[in-house]
């Protein structure tokens, strides 16, 4: 699921805004409530200890407790109107236990007393006992040392909830105004802001208090040609970030100039929407692409999604093992390929790594949702598959004696499971700019921004669109293209990677609402890369007549 | 108090909430639900869960200033607090020029979507249904992964103009993927019912096993244009993208597949084959749905496409007033009419074609033409001279449901299906389509 699905899911696309009645979103609150302190950390420890003790008394061999307060603020506008302002708070406690070798989970909303958390622990034990009869092999947990009482805070400069709503509304309305003044027929813009206040305690002896912040400014500009009735859109080139309101601080050093301006850790929304309105109009008369093989130059604002789908997901160990077979699917990257130590995932240029620590990324935390200290590790080294993403009850399957820290739940009321770490493509080691990369391309397409995306259930065959497409002829940009999508096979595609720009071009993209599991849970994850060249990729023309 | 309120209990609670209102107008939406699920993979239970939710939403307005507040605790103090909160938010809000005020009392059709068989599902009944599924696949060295998810709940609303609505409903969705241990075969089945008594997990699981074993040894066919028979599960995920885009405002604004140059729309025009009729009907016994929409408007039987012609689009009350037309709400269910032929008959009458049993990862490529992309999955078969000859490797397609419904060859008997993309239930016939565009091959099983 990405933003566009989310908009449809919430009915936002149609202008309504109704949230599903679930524990992820909780109840609506006053904006000031988002700044009020939650339950004191000393009280959280007492609530957690009550659950840990109650579960142990009922026979649990392992217990963890997550006390979560999830705060969200969404500001939604179109043209000169505020469509909605949503402030929600969800607070509760989830308890997970192992009894007789089987997991059990129970949760309780608004838990403020030790009796409530103890009762949830007892319910989790009862569920584990009931399900233990159906287990063939007991759960095997990788050992994990306790960290005592510790804390982690996202290094944000400005808490988005401290910024008055009026300032946010004024920003979006001025963004919309700029779009309309520059030729847009319609514009929708949204600011998503999230704060997760998470407390984790386990029988391993950890009491971990964490404060996570995320922000995502987005828009869609629509331009219509009244004569032909054709319409085109251009979406934002921002990235969702693990930052505060400081992401909206305009900083010339965070701008990457070129055919269109792209952004690093500071986003100039007004500048981007102004370009978007002009580019949406330009798309109306752009040349329709001629299908065939092209060398692709992919900007990080586009490549993140290809990395997400063709590397991040297939290297999730639960998919490889079959736990997601009924929904998201399995993986082509089977254990035998990994064990062979010579599976050629990509060309020698390709180094892909997982990481839960990068500052400003969506996946950055100090510890994961089962108390494992986060880190960085290699997935594909010099083109060869070397590792997966795993959690504590899977680590032994790939011969690891510790988890890689990929456990996450989207709410106190959801059971934690394996989720994607930030998965990124390492920048090239030799100095190379985008301009110099393009100079060598005879017949190519330069793609900026993410668009339509689809991949099969084992992550072989994919198709991606984009926001902006530029034709490259004999080393020069020849003009804008439209109706572009490329199709490839994961292994073939990464083996066609010939050049990666250096670290000066390295930027993050990401997904704010990545969906997985039954019932579905969302998570947020970043993917970094520098502009990268792939040779001889199959491009199709997507124009049709109805 | 129970989470699932009776009509009388809901009415009394809503009257109490409205008694606290000091606003010009007040509207209250109330809901309660109990859900339970079991998830299994690698032939054993992986997770299970149960949730109970209740929610009350108050919308207060002073003129065109509107505030909304929600709460999940229903004691008197909390109820009064949430009304005050909605009123405070309304006083602070800017005027909403599109606010329409609340509706007066409405007449609703009588529909029955609540079945005791589903409402009474216990963890033991759920486990038993899954055990039957596991027995079916477990005897044959196959890996089964499935999900059973049941719901019972109600929604109700009341406003200061005297409108009252109440609708209880139940639903159960079941899905199963069965794979051979060596990963060379995969089959799928999904079932959705309001009435749990209709769900036979063993019979459904046999279909997934059959497709799994039948899909082993798939041969590659060249991508290109083929005659296809889409099973209802495959057709649903393409057609729902057409259902999602029936909004009149987008069409009038020029940014929909129903838009025409110069601000006109395709309302009244034939856009697909004349055998295509798509309608909604909350009273349909196979797919009962709430007879009212979230803003209290009555849901009636509505023809969206009749004999290939666009007959209706969905309107917000604001947009309908602006356009001077009836405010037909977005439907609560969607049904596509069909014929009487069974899937087996349709295969028998096909000389050369491909049977598509499921489609996966459907995404919009071009909203102007409703062009979609995605792939076949979990059982795709080559048909020759009226018989299934052999399994074929999966394809990626690029196709628009509008083009597809113009290339219609035959329709079979509609059946209730669950969308594998949105979990929505529909009544959809199997359909034979000529010149369906497969653009590349996939190695996925």
Percent range for β-strand residues of chain A: 35-45%
Distance between the termini of chain B: 50 Å
- Estimated structural class of chain A: alpha+beta
Q: Helical amount among residues of chain A, as a percent range? A: 10-25%
The tally of strands of chain A reads 28
Low-confidence stretches of chain A: 1-22
Give the total of beta strands of chain B. 23
Count of discrete alpha- or pi-helical segments spanning 4 or more residues of chain A: 10
Subunit organisation of the chains: heterodimer
Mean pLDDT of chain A: 93
Summing up helix and strand content along with how strands pair, one would put the structural category of chain B as alpha+beta
Features:
heterodimer; A: 546 residues; alpha+beta; PmbA/TldD fold; 2 domains; ten-stranded mixed β-sheet; eight-stranded mixed β-sheet; 10 helices; 20% helix; disordered N terminus; B: 445 residues; nine-stranded mixed β-sheet; six-stranded antiparallel β-sheet; 23 strands; 23% helix; metallopeptidase activity (chain B)
Please give a structural write-up.
The complex is a heterodimer of chains A (546) and B (445). The model of chain A is unreliable at 1-22 (pLDDT under 50). In chain A, the strands form 6 sheets. In chain A, strands 11, 12, 19, 20, 21, 22, 23, 24, 25 and 28 form a 10-stranded mixed β-sheet that branches. Chain A has helices spanning 3-9, 41-57, 114-132, 165-181, 269-284, 300-312, 317-321, 335-339, 434-439, 490-495; strands at 27-28, 62-78, 81-99, 102-109, 148-153, 186-202, 206-225, 230-235, 255-256, 262-263, 287-288, 292-298, 352-355, 376-381, 384-385, 407-408, 417-418, 422-425, 443-448, 453-455, 461-464, 468-473, 476-482, 484-489, 497-500, 507-516, 521-529, 532-541. Chain A is an alpha+beta fold and 546 residues long. Chain B folds into 2 domains: 7-212, PmbA/TldD fold, CATH 3.30.2290; 218-445, no CATH class. Chain B has 10 helices and 23 strands. In chain B, helix 4 (123-138) runs parallel beside helix 5. The radius of gyration of chain B is 24 Å and the shape is globular. In chain B, the strands form 5 sheets. In chain B, strands 7, 14, 15, 16, 17, 18, 19, 20 and 23 form a 9-stranded mixed β-sheet that branches. A 6-stranded antiparallel β-sheet of chain B has the order 3-2-1-4-5-6. Helix content of chain B is 23%, strand content 37%. At the A-B interface, strand 1, strand 4, helix 3, strand 8 and strand 20 of A face strand 1, strand 2, strand 3, strand 4 and strand 5 of B.
């Amino acid at each position: 699921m990405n933003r566009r699905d989310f908009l449809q899911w919430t009915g936002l696309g149609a202008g309504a805004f109704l949230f599903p009645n679930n524990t992820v979103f909780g109840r609506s609150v006053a904006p000031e409530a988002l700044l009020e302190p939650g339950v004191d950390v000393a009280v959280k420890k007492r609530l957690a200890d009550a659950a840990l003790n109650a579960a142990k008394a009922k026979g649990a061999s392992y217990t963890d407790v997550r006390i979560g307060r999830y705060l969200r603020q969404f500001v939604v506008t179109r043209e000169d109107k505020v469509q909605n302002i949503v402030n929600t708070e969800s607070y509760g406690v989830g308890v997970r236990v192992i009894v007789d070798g089987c997991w059990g989970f129970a949760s309780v909303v608004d838990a403020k007393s030790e009796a409530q958390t103890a009762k949830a622990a007892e319910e989790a034990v009862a569920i584990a006992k009931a399900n233990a009869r159906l287990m063939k092999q007991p759960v095997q947990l990788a050992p994990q040392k306790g960290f005592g009482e510790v804390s982690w805070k996202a290094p944000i400069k400005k808490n988005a909830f401290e910024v008055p709503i009026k300032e946010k509304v004024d920003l979006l309305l001025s963004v919309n105004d700029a779009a309309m003044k520059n030729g847009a027929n319609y514009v929708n813009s949204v600011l998503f802001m999230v704060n997760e206040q998470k407390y984790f305690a386990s029988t391993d002896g950890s009491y971990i208090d964490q404060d996570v912040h995320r922000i995502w400014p987005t828009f869609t500009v629509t331009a219509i040609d009244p004569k032909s009735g054709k319409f085109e859109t251009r979406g934002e080139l921002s990235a969702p970030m693990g930052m505060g309101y400081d992401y909206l601080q305009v900083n010339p050093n965070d701008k990457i100039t070129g055919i269109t301006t792209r952004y690093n850790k500071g986003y100039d929304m007004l500048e981007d929407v102004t370009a978007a309105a002009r580019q949406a109009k330009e798309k109306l008369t752009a040349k329709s692409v001629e299908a065939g093989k092209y060398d692709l130059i992919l900007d990080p604002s586009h490549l993140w999604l290809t990395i997400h789908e063709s590397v991040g997901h297939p290297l999730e160990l639960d998919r490889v093992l079959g736990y997601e077979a009924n929904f998201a699917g399995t993986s082509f990257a089977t254990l035998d390929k990994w064990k062979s130590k010579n599976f050629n995932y990509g060309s020698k240029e390709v180094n892909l790594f997982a990481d839960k620590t990068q500052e400003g990324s969506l996946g950055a935390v100090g510890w994961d949702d089962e108390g494992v200290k986060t880190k960085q590790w290699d997935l594909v080294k010099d083109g060869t598959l070397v590792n997966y993403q795993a959690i504590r009850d899977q680590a032994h399957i790939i011969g690891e004696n510790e988890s890689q820290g990929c456990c996450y739940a989207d709410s106190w009321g959801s059971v934690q499971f394996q989720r994607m770490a930030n998965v990124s493509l390492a920048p090239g080691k030799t100095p190379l700019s985008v301009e110099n990369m393009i100079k060598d391309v005879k017949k190519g397409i330069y793609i900026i921004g993410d668009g339509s995306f689809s991949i099969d259930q084992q992550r072989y065959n994919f198709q991606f669109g984009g926001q902006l497409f530029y034709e490259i002829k004999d080393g020069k940009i020849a003009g804008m293209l439209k109706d572009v999508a490329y199709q490839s096979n994961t292994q073939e595609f990464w083996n066609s990677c010939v050049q990666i720009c250096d670290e000066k071009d390295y930027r993050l993209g990401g997904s704010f609402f990545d969906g997985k599991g039954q019932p579905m849970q969302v998570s947020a994850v970043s993917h970094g890369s520098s502009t990268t060249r792939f040779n001889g990729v199959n491009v199709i023309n997507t124009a049709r007549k109805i | 108090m129970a989470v699932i309120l009776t009509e009388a209990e809901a009415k009394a609670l809503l009257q109490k909430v409205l008694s606290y209102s000091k606003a010009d107008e007040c509207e209250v939406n109330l809901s309660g639900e109990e859900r339970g699920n079991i998830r299994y993979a690698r032939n054993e239970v992986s997770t299970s869960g149960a949730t109970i939710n209740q929610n009350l939403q108050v919308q207060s307005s002073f003129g065109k200033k509107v505030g909304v507040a929600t709460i999940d605790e229903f004691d008197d103090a909390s109820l009064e607090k949430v009304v005050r909160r909605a009123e405070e938010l309304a006083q602070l809000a800017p005027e909403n020029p599109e606010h329409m005020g609340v509706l007066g009392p409405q007449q609703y059709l009588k529909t029955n979507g609540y079945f005791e068989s589903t409402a009474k599902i216990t963890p033991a009944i759920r486990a038993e249904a899954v055990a039957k599924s596991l027995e079916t696949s477990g005897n044959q060295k196959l890996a089964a992964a499935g999900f059973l998810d049941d719901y019972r709940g109600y929604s109700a609303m009341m406003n200061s103009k005297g409108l009252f609505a109440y609708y209880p409903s139940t639903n159960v969705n079941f899905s199963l993927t069965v794979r051979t241990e060596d990963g060379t075969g995969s089959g799928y089945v999904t079932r959705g019912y309001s009435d749990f008594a209709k769900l036979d997990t063993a019979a459904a699981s046999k279909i997934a096993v059959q497709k799994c074993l039948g899909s082993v040894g798939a041969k590659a066919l060249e991508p290109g244009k083929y005659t296809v028979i889409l099973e209802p599960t495959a057709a649903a995920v393409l057609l729902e993208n057409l259902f999602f885009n029936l909004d009149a405002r987008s069409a009038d604004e020029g940014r929909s597949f129903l838009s025409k140059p110069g601000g006109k729309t395709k309302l009244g025009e034939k856009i697909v084959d004349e055998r295509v009729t798509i309608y909604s009907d909350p009273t349909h016994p196979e797919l009962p749905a709430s007879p009212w929409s979230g803003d209290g408007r009555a849901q009636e039987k509505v023809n969206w496409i009749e004999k290939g012609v666009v007959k209706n689009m969905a309107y917000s009350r604001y947009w309908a007033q602006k356009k001077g037309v009836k405010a037909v709400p977005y439907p609560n269910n969607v049904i596509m009419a069909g014929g009487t032929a069974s899937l087996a008959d349709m295969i028998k009458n096909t000389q050369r074609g491909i049977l598509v049993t499921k489609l996966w990862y459907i995404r919009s490529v071009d909203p102007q033409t409703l062009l979609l992309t995605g792939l076949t999955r979990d059982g795709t078969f080559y048909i020759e001279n009226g018989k299934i000859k052999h399994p074929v490797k999966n394809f990626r397609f690029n196709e628009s449901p509008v083009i597809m419904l113009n290339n219609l060859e035959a329709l079979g008997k509609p059946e209730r299906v669950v969308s594998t993309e949105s979990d929505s239930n529909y009544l959809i016939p199997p359909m034979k389509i000529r010149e369906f565009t497969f653009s590349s091959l996939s190695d996925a099983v």
